[in-house]
Design a protein that fits this description.
Elements (H helix, E strand, L loop, with lengths): L1 H29 L4 E9 L6 H12 L3 E8 L2 E11 H12 L4 E6 L10
Antiparallel strand pairs: 1-3, 1-4, 2-3
Length: 117
């Protein structure tokens, strides 16, 4: 009797897991895709003319981006036109990161702080 109850419980949990997985997939596919509008670039050598350095980098890698502003510490914000999805942009950024003039490049994404517990 106990074994039969355990099997029913296992089947019930498996069914519930399947339902939750299907619901999660349905919810995930209906969410809008976040578009990346800016990237943050750091060059290995601080450029004298950051606008020109960003323009040259964009031309070399065929990415439509323009200099927006300096963040400080050798970091620069570049505007993407048009905005790109993270899935499309990530391989491009990985390729640009290999450029000999680039120390780092990453998507400028809004970060949310969470309370520590």
């Amino acid at each position: 009797m106990l074994m039969r109850g355990m099997k029913l419980l296992q089947r019930g949990l498996l069914g519930l897991s399947c339902i939750l997985l299907i619901a999660a997939c349905a919810t995930a596919s209906s969410e809008p895709v976040a578009m990346i509008e800016r990237v943050i670039v750091q060059f290995k050598v601080k450029p004298v003319a950051p606008e020109q350095a960003v323009t040259q980098l964009a031309q070399r890698h065929k990415l439509a981006m323009t200099f927006e502003r300096e963040l400080g510490g050798g970091f620069y914000v570049a505007q993407l036109t048009p905005a790109q999805s993270a899935a499309v942009l990530q391989p491009i950024l990985q390729k640009i990161a290999l450029d000999v003039t680039v120390a780092s490049i990453e998507a400028d994404q809004l970060m949310h702080t969470m309370p520590a517990q």
